[in-house]
Amino acid sequence: MDTSIQNAADRPPPKAGTGVLGWMHERLFSSPLNAILTVLALWLLLLAVPALIEYLFVRPDFNATTGAECHASGGYCWAFIAEKHRLILFGIYPYDEQWRPLLASVILVGVIVCSCIRWFWKPFLGIMWVVALVLVGVLMWGGVFGLTYVENSRWGGLPLTLILSTFGIAFAFPFGLLLALGRRSHMPAAKAVCVIYIELIRGVPLVSLLFMSSVMLPLFLPEGFSIDKLLRAQIAIILFAAAYVAETVRGGLQAMPKGQFEGAESIGLSYWQQMRKIILPQALKIVIPPLVGIFISLFKDTSLVVIIGIFDLTQAAKAAVSDAAWRGFSTESYLFIAVIYFIFCFSISRYSMSLERQLDQGQHR
Q: Rounded distance, CA 89 to CA 80, Å?
């Protein structure tokens, strides 16, 4: 008998690689370091989870009607959320008309969800977006179909955050693509303009751009001409995000093998046909994770518009605790909006992971 076969016969059977025990061994206890980290994580969970459950569900007085009663319980004040949730979610939008921003938010989230489903990736998706944005504008502004006109200075809360982030992503992405292509262009003038723009914008924080759009930009406009403050903030967000999208996409383009460019040229495609049909689809697939990171950051960075007086979700949370009858509940207010931010950001992250798996199906055995 062959020695190698005899040695293999004398070895113990392989450890189970399937089932609960196999999963635990592979994911949690595959090495001494992983075992230590697993035990440490379990210990931290045992310390944190019971205390959190007690704070949120055991100690609170669910029948409390005043701030004093909530303070006495020592737990999370659900009465504060019940009293102030409409202010936090919709800001200073007229109370009797708050069904309109609620419906606008539902429409906006609905069309975003549809855009994430591959079955909807057809030409009529563009029509859906146009119709959805028109409906959102009609609902938020009003002034038609018997709806009361509400100026955008009274918009606030979650609908405003969704509008700023959605328009920011929708316009920053194609602008960033053009900047990335311009930076790789062989035309010196176009390349220089794109490089200067990208490096200049990436060299300053978003706060400074918001201040410039709110304070300095009106000084350079002709007398009698003005741009709405919300529109100025939206433009600043788009310009800021586009610079980061451009650098991310440029990284994906540089990661493309040279043979892809040469192959596209060899079959007689024009420059824009090469980009649209061959190069950009592959490059964008490579940079999905960093692009999603930019989109998540943009969604959270919309909270910075509070510094120029726009009543976003964080400003609405701050206003909710300014009521003398409910002071001292900033933890409840900010934890409430933290959950909202987490739900949206976590959903975006999970969708990106799902999209990566779908696009990689032909790349792995």
A: 13
Quote the crossing angle between the two packed helices 313-320 and 330-359, to the nearest 10°: 160
Q: For residues 287-311, give the mean pLDDT.
A: 89
Q: What is the pLDDT of residue 15?
A: 55
pTM of the model: 0.84
pLDDT bracket for residue 45 (50, 70, 90): very high
Q: Rounded mean pLDDT of 44-72? A: 86
Using DSSP's 3-state secondary structure scheme, residue 312 falls into strand
3-state helix, strand, coil in the chain (%, to 5): 75, 0, 25
pLDDT grade, residue 152 (50/70/90)? Answer: confident
Angle at 206 between CA 295 and CA 347, to 5 degrees: 20
If you average pLDDT over residues 140-167, what whole number do you get?
Answer: 91
Q: Would you tell me how many other CB atoms lie within 10 Å of the CB of residue 344?
A: 18
Pull the structure tokens for residue 75.
Answer: 């737990």
Type of residue found at 87? L
Rounded Cα distance, 22 and 36, in Å: 18
Average pLDDT over residues 92-102: 93
End-to-end CA distance of the chain: 35
Q: Is 44 helix (H, G, I), strand (E, B) or coil?
A: helix
Q: Which amino acid, one-letter code, is at 91? A: G
CA 41, CA 187: separation in Å to the nearest integer? Answer: 54
Opening angle at CA 318, ends 312 and 322, nearest 5:
135
Report CA-CA distances (Å) from 60 to 80, 163, 337.
Answer: 11, 35, 19
Q: How far, in Å, CA of 120 to CA of 113, rounded? A: 10
**How many CB atoms within 10 Å of residue 236?**
25
State pLDDT tens for residues 187-205.
899 999 999 999 999 999 9
Closest to 35 in 3D by CA, of 26, 47, 44: 26
